[in-house]
Write a structure and sequence with these properties.
single chain, 157 residues, alpha+beta, Protein Transport Mog1p, Chain A, 8-stranded antiparallel β-sheet, 8 strands, 38% strand, globular
Length: 157
């Protein structure tokens, strides 16, 4: 078992129920404004259309951010408990590592003492992590991606 999968699993369990900030899509963040939100079926349909097949459950939110500094998208897949979120993250990461995708150079990194999967593609940096019972995929313009994610992890802690 990959040691980072173990860290991801333990992080999900340890942080489950610990997050005090439940506003995962703030109206403004990192100098970017929330310009659009898709919820549940609309969000699932958006994600499924991106993948050209059904990959998403119906409990989802997507926040689109824009500003002078760039763009970011925060995808949230909500589960009833941490285990399914962790399993979905593991499955997603395995597909990114083993299948042909537009994402490259994937690896686990530590940001704010948290194991986060990072990869690159489609002009952005992408991060995958689990917090509470939520699977996060955060896509951010490359030049400020790590700073954005570090601030976002602080924000949702």
């Amino acid at each position: 078992m990959n040691k980072y999968f173990l860290v991801l699993t333990l992080t999900g369990f340890l942080l489950s129920g610990c997050s005090s900030n439940k506003d995962y899509l703030p109206a403004e963040f990192f100098g970017l404004k929330l310009t659009n939100v898709k919820v549940d079926d609309e969000a699932a349909n958006f994600v499924n259309k991106l993948h050209l097949k059904t990959v998403s459950s119906s409990k989802n939110k997507i926040g689109f951010y824009e500003g002078k500094t760039g763009r970011a998208v925060i995808y949230l897949s909500m589960y009833d408990e941490a285990n399914p979120a962790i399993s979905a993250a593991k499955k997603m990461i395995a597909k990114l590592k083993n299948d042909k995708t537009p994402f490259v150079d994937g690896e686990f990194i530590i940001i704010n003492d948290e194991a986060v999967y990072i990869c690159f593609g489609m002009g952005q940096t992408h991060f995958i992590f689990v917090r509470d019972d939520i699977l996060f995929w955060v896509s951010v313009d490359n030049y400020f991606a790590k700073r954005f994610l570090a601030d976002y992890l602080d924000y949702i802690s």
